[in-house]
Design brief:
The complex is a heterodimer of chains A (171) and B (91). Chain A has 171 residues and is α/β, with parallel strands linked by helices. Chain A has one domain: Cytidine Deaminase, domain 2, CATH 3.40.140. Chain A has 3 helices and 9 strands. In chain A, strand 7 and strand 8 form a beta hairpin. Chain A is globular and about 65 Å long. Chain A starts with a strand and ends in a 20-residue tail after the last strand. Chain B has one domain: Ubiquitin-like (UB roll) (Roll), CATH 3.10.20. Chain B has 2 helices and 8 strands. In chain B, the strands form 2 sheets. A 5-stranded mixed sheet of chain B has the order 2-1-7-5-6, with helices on one face. Chain B has a two-stranded antiparallel ribbon with strand order 3-4. The radius of gyration of chain B is 12 Å and the shape is globular. Classes of the chains: A alpha/beta (171), B alpha+beta (91). Strand 4 of chain A pairs antiparallel with strand 8 of chain B, so a sheet runs across the interface.
Chain lengths: 171, 91
């Protein structure tokens, strides 16, 4: 499950809309091994085909600069984000949005980052509604959908049984 | 000539979980050969058909080696080599 703050979802969606019809990409960083995204870093789409709205690739030098900065803060990549825009070969869902499901190429590259959530925002235009889904690869390399839980803040989100306060004994 | 190599999560199975390892060599090619000698199997994850695999980015100090000679990139003594997974998708 991906538990994510609403303002971070809004940042990703705003980036997808701003860059449409190009695919937008970025990453959400959080404390190491926390699985908790804390800040959004938009990345430059360096893929030439990105101009046709079909592919994305992090600019490698920018990626290194973000990696070094994150390391000094004990942060790591929790979520890799990209948008799906409307291209002819991409299936549309019943709601008329491009399918927010990883492509073959998406899955190849997902295999390099075990444990990282891959979030996809599908839009048809700068003013359209959107669909947000997230995926992970399991240990067998199969794509599994990762339920997205959008929260206002992490303090009150339920993150596990340890958060349930013990019941005080009676008497 | 010794360099410090940062290993991404996906390749730490080859380094016994270590995030950083030392390797000898004055070019990236030599550093990778030395890595392979001590951590068998890692070379195939980095190099294919005599060039860097498209799934990885490799940096010597602060420069992406794709812009600095690829496998022939010079690695200075006490330099750092950072391996990151390439992030891409589409189609």
């Amino acid at each position: 499950m991906l538990v994510i703050r609403r303002d971070l979802v809004e940042e990703m969606v705003a980036h997808a809309r701003r860059d449409h019809p190009r695919e937008a990409c970025g990453q959400l960083l959080g404390p190491e091994e926390s699985d908790r995204p804390e800040r959004y870093v938009p990345m430059t789409n360096a893929d030439d085909a990105g101009a046709q709205g079909s592919d994305y690739r992090f600019d490698s030098r920018e990626q290194f600069a973000v990696y070094k900065d994150a390391a000094t803060r004990d942060e790591e990549t929790v979520v890799v984000f990209h948008s799906h825009t409307r291209v002819p070969r991409r299936p549309l869902t019943d709601s008329g949005l491009p399918e927010a499901y990883p492509s073959v190429k998406d899955i190849e590259f997902m295999g390099l980052q075990p444990g990282v959530h891959f979030a996809i925002v599908a839009i048809t235009g700068p003013d359209s509604s959107y669909d947000l889904r997230s995926f992970l690869l399991d240990d067998a390399g199969e794509v599994v959908e990762d339920e997205v839980q959008v929260v206002e803040n992490y303090m009150f989100s339920h993150t596990g049984p340890n958060d349930i306060p013990p019941v005080a004994p009676l008497g | 000539m010794s360099a410090t190599v940062s290993i991404p999560t996906i390749l730490r199975t080859h380094t016994g979980g270590e995030k950083q390892v030392k390797a000898e060599g004055s070019t990236l090619q030599e550093v990778i050969s030395d890595l392979e000698a001590n951590h068998p199997g890692i070379k195939d994850r980095l190099v294919t058909d005599g060039a860097l695999h498209r799934f990885v980015n490799v940096y010597v100090n602060d420069e992406d080696v794709r812009f600095a000679g690829g496998l022939d990139a010079q690695v200075p003594d006490n330099g750092t080599v950072t391996i990151l997974p390439a992030v891409a998708g589409g189609r």
